[in-house]
């Protein structure tokens, strides 16, 4: 991935020149946890973005190896600086830099931003669990909710301790059992197919956790602890 990102940065500089503000990598590829089919979550920030820039970046990606796996974020520095801080917290902390520094493009982010990020994640997970149990009962959606829970757990842990833990195994070792069980559930959700009872049990675990997290995080609104 380092070679791939270095090639991407070189082509970005050829295409956009001094307008390139940042290039980085997110997700499992950045954390060293990826499988062969994992997405390549590239992050590219320019000074500004037009429809022509989007077309140019799309054409650039067509020249890159493993194009079918590439996703991620492409945007402008001015918009990123004004992004919702709850979303920005995870975005900044989960991105490994290969060109430039996100801290130079974004406002300082602290524990209150982490609390809001964790609360937003818990709310989205709660809604997704209820929707899945009532309507689509889709194992792939449940697996995505468990994946989302890892981000919420990172934000919650930062809110509690002031420490951001990048790698999932390191995070699990630090979490209380009630939180760490979600990371065990993530593996089970990935393997889930058409087992209705397992779907219900995994959904219930996530639903109970998200409800508790919503109450805890909302009660601490405005607190530094």
Mean pLDDT across all amino acids: 95
Order of helices and strands: HEHEHEHHEHHHHH
Strand content: 5-15%
* Overall geometric form: globular
Number of helices: 10
Helical content stands at 55-70%
Structural class: alpha+beta
> Main sheet?
4 strands, mixed
Number of DSSP E strands: 4
Q: Gap between N and C termini, in Å?
A: 37 Å
Give the oligomeric state.
single chain
Radius of gyration: 19 Å
Low-confidence stretches: none
Biggest sheet strand line-up? 3-2-1-4
Task: Give a description of the structure.
The chain is α+β, with helices and mostly antiparallel strands and 225 residues long. Helix content is 62%, strand content 12%. It has a 4-stranded mixed β-sheet with strand order 3-2-1-4. It is globular, with a radius of gyration of 19 Å. The protein starts with a helix and ends in a 6-residue tail after the last helix.
């Amino acid at each position: 991935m380092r070679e791939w990102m270095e090639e991407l940065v070189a082509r970005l500089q050829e295409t956009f020149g001094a307008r390139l503000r940042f290039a980085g990598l997110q997700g499992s590829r950045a954390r060293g946890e990826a499988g062969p089919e994992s997405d390549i979550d590239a992050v590219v920030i320019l000074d500004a973005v037009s429809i022509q820039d989007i077309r140019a970046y799309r054409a650039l990606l067509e020249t890159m190896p493993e194009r079918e796996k590439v996703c991620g974020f492409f945007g402008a520095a001015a918009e990123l600086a004004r992004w919702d801080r709850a979303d920005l917290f995870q975005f900044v902390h989960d991105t490994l830099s290969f060109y430039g520094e996100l801290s130079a493009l974004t406002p300082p982010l602290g524990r209150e931003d982490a609390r809001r990020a964790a609360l937003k994640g818990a709310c989205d997970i709660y809604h997704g669990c209820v929707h899945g149990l009532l309507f689509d009962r889709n194992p792939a959606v449940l697996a995505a909710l468990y994946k989302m829970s890892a981000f919420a757990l990172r934000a919650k842990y930062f809110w509690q301790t002031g420490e951001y833990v990048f790698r999932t195994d390191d995070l699990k070792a630090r979490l209380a059992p009630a939180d760490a069980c979600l990371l065990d559930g993530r593996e089970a959700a990935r393997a889930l197919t058409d087992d209705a009872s397992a779907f219900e049990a995994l959904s219930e675990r996530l639903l109970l956790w998200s409800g508790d997290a919503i109450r805890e995080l909302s009660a601490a609104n405005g607190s530094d602890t």
